[in-house]
Structure formats: C-alpha cells, structure tokens
Amino acid sequence: MTMTDGPRLTVVPTPAPGPRPVPLPRVRPAAPTRRRPAPEHELRWTDPVTGAQGFLVVDTLVGGLATGGTRMRAGCTVSEVADLARGMSTKTAVFGLPVGGAKGGIDFDPKDPRATGVLERFCVAMRPWLDRHWVTAEDLGVPQHLIDDVFLRLGLNQSFHAAIGRSPDPERTLRRVQDGLAARTADGLLVGEVIGGYGVAQACLGVVTALAQHPAATTVAIQGIGTMGGGAAWYLHHAGVRVVAVADAAGTLYRRTGLDVPALLELRDRYGEIDRSRVPDDVEQLPRDAVLELAVDILVPAAISYAVRAENVAGVRAKVLVEAANSATTPEAETALVARGVPVVPDFVANAGAAAWAWWLLQGQVGTDPDEAFDRLAEEMRPKVARLVAAWRADRVAPRQTAYDMADANRQALAGAEITIP
Questions:
Q1: Are 61 and 15 in contact (CB under 8 A)?
Q2: Segment 213-246, tens digit of pLDDT
Q3: CA-based angle 199:103:86, to the nearest 5?
Q4: What is the distance between the alpha carbons of residues 412 and 111, in angstroms, rounded to a whole number?
Q5: Per-residue pLDDT tens over the stretch 339-356
C-alpha cells in the first residue's frame, strides 16, 4: 500500500531564533480535569432479537445537529459512549465546526454473524435522531461501508442524512458529498482513509515548529500502524521526520537512524501486522510495549485507549505525547506526565482531521481535490498545536487546558448561530 506525497508535505523550515525562553516555574500544575454538564440527551435501547444493549449519547447540539460515529464491541458501556460524545463536542468546538458532539455504541461482538442485523435495528430505533439531528459514521467495529449499506436499506441514502436534509437542494448536496467521499489520492487511496493520519502528522509538525527544531533532527515513535498510526508514520517520513520506531501487535521495530516506513508498511498482512521474516537485519525487534519507553522527541499512541496509564507511565521517556488514539492516556497518567514536564497534545485536537474534513466537505468548503483538503487541514492543525505547545513552554499551561479554552471561545462564537448547508 502506498500513500501520496505532494506539495503539502513540504519540510518545515527551522524557525529563526526567538527571544530567550521564559524561565519555567518550579511547581508544575497537574493536567486539567473539568466537570462537564450532563449530556443533553441519553438514550438506551435493548435489541428485541439478541438482547444486545445500545446507547446514543448526545452531549451537545449546535443548531440542532450533533455528529459522532457508532461503535460496536462486546462490553461497550453507556459511560464509555458518554465520554466519547464529550470528546466529540470538544473536537468540533476546537475546530470551530458548527455542530455538536454525539456518539452511538452497541454492546455486541462485531464478528458475530448477527451483528449487521443488530446495527440495522439500532438505527431503526434511532431513526428520529438520524432523520433530523444525528450525523453518524464509522467507528470501532463498524466500518463505513456497513453504515452506508444500512442507511441505504432504511431509505436514508447516506450517513450525513440529517445535515443534508437541511440543504435547500438535498439531491445536489448529496451528490457533492458522495463525490467528495469517493475522491482518491494520486495513488488511489480514498482521502477519507488517510486524512486522519495526515492530520496526526500535521499535529506532530506543529510540535516541531513550537520546539524550534528541524524535522530531520526530530525523532518519533508510533504505537499502532493501522489507518491512523500508519498514515501518520507515512506522512511524517515524507516530511523528513525520523520515525525511529513503530509497533504493531507483534512487537516494536526500532532503528536509531530512522525506519524505511514505506517499505515496512508494504510488509503488512491482512491483520495489519508486519511480516517479521522480511524485516531488514538492521532493524531491532523489541517487545510490543517497548515503543512507549524509547527516548524520543514525540511519542504517538495510535493503537488503543488508555495505552499510557498509571502502571506504565514511569517508563515513558518522550519529550511530548501526541494522542492519536481516543483517550490514549488516562487522566492519572497525564497528571504524572505534566508534573514531570511532559506535555500531552490531546486526542480531540490531534485526531480531529477526519471529522473536520467531513464537515468541510458537507459545507462545500473543500471539494474533490485531495490537495485542497490536505492543505486546509495543515493550515488549521499545525498552528493550533503549535499554540498549545507554545503556551506550555512559556507558562506551563497544560495543552489540554489551552485546548479547552479554545473550544469554549468557539462555542460562545457559535451560540445561537444558524447552521446552513449549501
């Protein structure tokens, strides 16, 4: 598999020397936690056929709309869905998107042959929300093509249905959205499949800018080489950053001078693991969790939630964490990292690329040209992350707090706004 690299991957120049850094205070505040109001709506559902439990949590509505994917996994809980819905609310607010946050979840094994039927019955039960208020999409255990198939059978055309219905010409808007979702990069990959990883790479480059480093002098370790982690590794490699380690389920691959990321990604099997029998001899093969303990500039947890937690946080030696996976660090672990002087760029900023692109597409702000979408995301993501890290370096304000402040300011600006879909 290959991914395109174009003008948007221009190497970031080394920033000119600036004023002397502000001396750091001796006492470093813990990572911020904030009490959020209860979600605006919480629905629970029981499948009449299998007994599976399903949940829809609408954390916030902006102009009557909320967006967030639908996941399916055995053990999914309403509290998990509520946490993810809150994250979506913050993610859309940080990027100034005129939509609130929501999430759907079903406690069922997605590999069970009955899973599609469970998903379809869940969507039928949530039809009033899908008709008017909730824009959903793929998530853990629910690929986009499955969501699209279910929507077609229900006569809803596309999972953007609730927003498209607000257009003065829904058929024209639907065609525009479908064309955008079908857009491919120069080497044939769907933009929607790679733009999330591209956004994470841009978040890392925002860190590079704030640290006043050159990409070639910056080392990155990435946990996870799926859609998000693999895409981030690819785009960072082509931006000149030294990706020195990647990890999959089989372990960590490490090379101090930098990995040949494109060659390694070509060795992935259908389960997303790299064929170890074909890995070059000069690449060290380490245990899976070793990726979290390498002395690198940036660590990108892109595999699972809560990868960095109280019991392993002491081993983290990166200078900065960039969360690509949702909730990649626990609150306790983030508090410990911040106390040690390690800032964490939160997931609701770093992994927002796909959500932002989808909404720009819906509103006609980007079209079918991949470069247009990538350039817009780079222009939005890189300065935001640079601002988070700059506030940390100057005043030791945790990036999460600065991001919350950005989200709150955007929410106030959007309050009472009328949402238009062209």
A1: no
A2: 999 999 999 999 988 999 999 999 999 999 999 9
A3: 75
A4: 43
A5: 999 999 999 999 999 999
CA 71 to CA 90: how far, in whole Å?
19
Nearest to 190 by CA among 357, 70, 376, 67: 357
- For the chain, the domains span 41-90+99-166, 187-414
Weakest-pLDDT range from 67-81, 330-344, 370-384, 404-418? 404-418
Q: For 187-414, which CATH class?
A: alpha beta
Facing residues of 349 across strands? none
pLDDT of residue 7: 33
Please report how many Cα atoms fall inside a 13 Å half-sphere around the Cα of residue 318, on the Cβ side: 32
Q: Which CATH architecture has domain 41-90+99-166?
A: 3-Layer(aba) Sandwich (3.40)
Are residues 370 and 185 in contact, defined by beta-carbon separation less than 8 angstroms?
Answer: yes
Cβ-Cβ contacts under 8 Å for 94 (sequence gap 6 or more): 348, 349, 352, 384, 403, 406, 407, 410
Report the mean per-residue pLDDT for the chain. Answer: 90
246, 264 contact by CB (below 8 A): yes
b/e per residue, 128-137, with b = 16+ CB within 10 A?
Answer: ebbeebbbbb
User: Do 41-90+99-166 and 187-414 agree at the fold level?
Assistant: yes
C-alpha closest to that of 396 among 7, 18, 15, 32 = 32
272: left (phi over 0), alpha (psi -120 to 50) or beta: left
* SS3 assignment, position 63: coil
**pTM for this model (two decimals):** 0.87
* Single-letter residue type at 305: S
Q: What residue type is assigned to position 398 of the chain?
A: A
Rounded to 5 degrees, φ, ψ at 360 are -60, -40
Condensed to tens digits (0 to 9), the pLDDT of residues 97-150 reads 999 999 999 999 999 999 999 999 999 999 999 999 999 998 888 988 899 899
Spatial CB neighbours of 412, under 8 Å, sequence gap ≥ 6 = none
> d(Cα 374, Cα 201) in Å, to the nearest integer?
11
| Lowest mean pLDDT across 263-267, 283-287, 369-373, 410-414 | 410-414
| pLDDT tier for residue 31 given thresholds of 50, 70 and 90 | low
